């Protein structure tokens, strides 16, 4: 009884936790890579790389389920919908299972397979087959029973020779027996046998390597890995048809058999007569790769590797519709930029050694109130491995994307207009591989206060370039500060209030440059050379107190005042020392830091390679948030980039498995109080959040009183927004009534008075 109570309590806490998450988080996932599909009598369920969506065939209603709802960010390998139990089961490559319950909306994560004492690479879930309230889970080590009624696992069957692990690709129930297509033969066992954990009960029917097996009314069909279709004759499987390619999926639905190969979907009737075949050129073009297919009534659904889910009339229609929810091109978003009105994302990348090969051929994505706009690779003038993107702060319709192979791509009003490269600009190709090899590696970009665009050009002497507002290019040589500039690669650039450029390098720490004095300085490894823990710097950011935050592959450093560039011959950065458990420790000691961004309250959001996201206070002494895959909807702990919407405080986090945003409230300060406002207003009884006073100037004084003038709250803003928890200085919730909000500038030059109504 106690155990049942604890289990129910866990489920309640789990659901509550994700109910809270959904208030604070949003997901931005790609649904283009269809891993598997399933169906009920009315709805198709499609599992993409690490998210799920469904479409009702009658109403056309689309529903998505992501990590924000409680899914894992791991890679999905199989999905099955049980219409009888109204549950959708999702299997992952690492052995995790999640069960989505339609009845109450709960999502249960089941870790029994992950916890098995087996090699990690054998835990992949390949297929689900339901029979008599049990689901037979095909894995790379064998078969596991899962009870749909209790959501508990039962027996595990190791059915290889002498009870060894064996990769089971698919199972089928036929004439009282369970048949398993495996990497070492088709095996069968009597479904009523109570001792199926004994490998001797599983009889070898046919040897060989098999990819699938399925019951088609009175027939049992199997396909081997060579793409040869076989029929069962009560004793053995007899081959009768060779497919042109190996199959990727086979399933029977309503008396029809759907066999999918990368280029073609074959549809057979229950006599194994071919009714129809659909090639990828009929759906889109010959670059399309099919992964799976099914049908609901007269609607055919085809999943693809990178273009989502297509549908058509089963009865020989030539018109195909894309049913995929809007989203970015892919989930491995390498870099983003965010404005008050839009978000831009790019997917090209490089490894930890700044090697862009193999080159990526992706496009660019934009997200706005209109939804997702995906600009395909065919439209970006052949720009490969696009690694950074930046919006002109003075002209939001002008965007620049850095290609770490092809140069700098310019967009005007969402349309690519020019690719700057070695032929038409001041950009240069690497030269150490010979004059005929063209490789223009542009990465970090930043606009200065005059509107000039500064860019890094890796592996050349003149590694710093500027595109001026008049369209002219100028180059600056880094050979005067770097011993071997042609061997160097560059990451981010930050520009401070003095117009000094701070450049993150792979081998030389941080290079500072100010063109007004044509001065270069360097912060690198060694107590007397800059005090960095390693010369490999990945991120730089200047905060509102003119400190330079430096993220390296082995930790964090801070230059206390960027103004020291003008006065000190050798700049020195220091670690942030915090006290944890009465011990002095270095903040983010030896963490590989990929991104640092400063919010409107001067907090720092710091992304890492394997530890998720840290949000620390303005001086780094307090870690306010630490988000990981275990306590948040982050799909991965590998953070590629972080950016903040300065108007709303929304924090966008791009990982290698998808992007999410957190609804922060630290907005940038306004120039005046003309647009100060309060939300929500009124505060209704069912609202449990905080009241925000937004549109503030920096360091504004805010006093909140009841209608009789009794002070209940007072604070000073850092940035453009403050929060009030509707308590009287944290002691008790204030009563219903009208409350006055008095706002004044630090010097008293501006004042505003607002009202907020609270209804308890």
UniProtKB/TrEMBL annotation:
Keywords: Signal
Pfam families assigned to the protein according to its UniProt record, in alphabetical order: Por_Secre_tail, PorZ_N_b_propeller
Signal peptide residue numbers: 1-19
Domain Secretion system C-terminal sorting: 678-758
PorZ N-terminal beta-propeller domain residues: 44-202
Transmembrane segments: none
The protein, known as: T9SS type A sorting domain-containing protein
């Amino acid at each position: 009884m106690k155990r049942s109570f604890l289990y129910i309590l866990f489920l309640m806490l789990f659901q509550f936790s994700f109910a809270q998450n959904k208030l604070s988080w949003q997901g931005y996932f790609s649904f283009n890579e269809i891993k598997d599909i399933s169906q009920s009598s009315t709805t198709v369920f499609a599992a993409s790389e690490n998210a799920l969506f469904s479409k009702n065939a009658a109403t056309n209603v689309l529903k998505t389920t992501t990590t924000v709802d409680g899914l894992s960010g791991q890679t999905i390998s199989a999905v099955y919908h049980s219409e009888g139990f109204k549950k959708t089961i999702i299997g992952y490559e690492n052995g995790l299972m999640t069960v989505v319950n339609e009845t109450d909306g709960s999502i249960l994560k089941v870790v029994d397979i992950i916890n098995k004492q087996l090699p990690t690479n054998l835990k992949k879930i390949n297929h689900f087959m339901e029979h008599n309230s049990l689901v037979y889970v095909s894995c790379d080590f064998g078969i596991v029973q899962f009870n749909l009624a209790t959501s508990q696992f039962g027996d595990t069957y190791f059915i290889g020779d002498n009870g060894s692990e064996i990769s089971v690709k698919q199972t089928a129930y036929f004439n009282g027996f369970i048949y398993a297509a495996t990497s070492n033969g088709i095996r069968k066992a009597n479904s009523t046998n109570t001792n199926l954990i004994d490998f001797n009960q599983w009889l070898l029917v046919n040897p060989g390597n098999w990819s699938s097996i399925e019951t088609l009314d009175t027939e049992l069909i199997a396909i081997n890995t060579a793409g040869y279709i076989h029929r069962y004759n009560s004793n053995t499987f007899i081959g009768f048809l060779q497919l042109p390619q190996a199959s990727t999926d086979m399933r029977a639905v309503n008396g029809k058999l759907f066999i999918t190969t990368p280029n073609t979907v074959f549809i057979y009737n229950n006599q194994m007569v071919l009714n129809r075949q659909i090639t990828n050129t009929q759906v889109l073009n010959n670059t399309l790769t099919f992964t799976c297919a099914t049908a609901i009534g007269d609607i055919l659904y085809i999943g693809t590797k990178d273009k989502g889910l297509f549908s058509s009339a089963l009865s020989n229609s030539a018109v195909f519709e894309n049913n995929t929810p809007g989203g970015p091109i892919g989930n491995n978003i390498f870099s983003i930029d965010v404005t008050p009105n839009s978000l831009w994302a790019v997917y090209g990348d490089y490894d930890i050694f700044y090697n862009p090969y193999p080159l990526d051929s992706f496009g660019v994505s934009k997200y706005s109130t209109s939804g997702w706009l995906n600009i395909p690779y065919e439209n970006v003038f052949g720009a490969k491995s696009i690694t950074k993107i930046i919006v002109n702060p003075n002209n939001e319709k002008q965007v620049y994307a850095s290609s770490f192979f092809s140069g700098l791509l310019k967009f005007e009003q969402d349309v690519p207009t020019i690719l700057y490269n070695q032929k038409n600009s001041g950009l240069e190709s690497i030269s150490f591989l010979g004059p005929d090899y063209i490789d223009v590696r542009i990465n970090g970009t930043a606009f200065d206060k005059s509107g000039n665009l500064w860019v890094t050009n890796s592996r050349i002497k003149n590694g710093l370039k500027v595109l001026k507002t008049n369209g002219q290019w100028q180059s600056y040589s880094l050979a005067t500060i770097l011993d071997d500039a042609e061997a160097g690669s560059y990451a981010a650039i930050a520009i401070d209030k003095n117009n000094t450029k701070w450049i993150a390098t792979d081998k030389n720490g941080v290079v500072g440059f100010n063109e007004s004095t044509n001065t270069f300085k360097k912060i690198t490894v060694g107590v007397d050379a800059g005090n960095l823990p390693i010369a490999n710097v990945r991120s730089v950011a200047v905060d509102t107190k003119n400190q330079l935050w430096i993220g390296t592959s082995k930790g964090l450093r801070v230059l206390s005042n960027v103004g020291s560039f003008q006065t000190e011959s050798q700049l020195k950065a220091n670690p942030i020392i915090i006290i944890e458990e009465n011990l002095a420790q270095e903040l983010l000691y030896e963490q590989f830091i990929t991104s640092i961004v400063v919010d409107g309250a001067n907090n720092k959001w710091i992304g890492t390679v394997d530890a998720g996201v840290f949000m620390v206070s303005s001086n780094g002494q307090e870690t306010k948030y630490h988000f990981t895959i275990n306590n948040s909807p982050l799909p991965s702990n590998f953070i590629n980039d972080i950016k903040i919407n300065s108007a709303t405080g929304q924090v966008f986090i791009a990982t290698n498995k998808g992007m999410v945003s957190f609804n922060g409230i630290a907005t940038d300060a306004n120039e005046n109080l003309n647009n100060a406002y309060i939300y929500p207003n009124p505060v209704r009884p069912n609202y449990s959040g905080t009241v925000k006073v937004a549109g503030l100037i920096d360091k504004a004084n805010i006093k909140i009183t009841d209608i009789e003038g009794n002070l209940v709250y007072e604070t000073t803003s850092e940035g453009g927004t403050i929060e009030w928890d509707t308590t009287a200085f944290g002691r008790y919730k204030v009563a219903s009534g009208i409350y006055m909000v008095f706002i004044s500038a630090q010097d008293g030059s501006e004042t505003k008075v607002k009202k907020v109504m609270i209804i308890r």
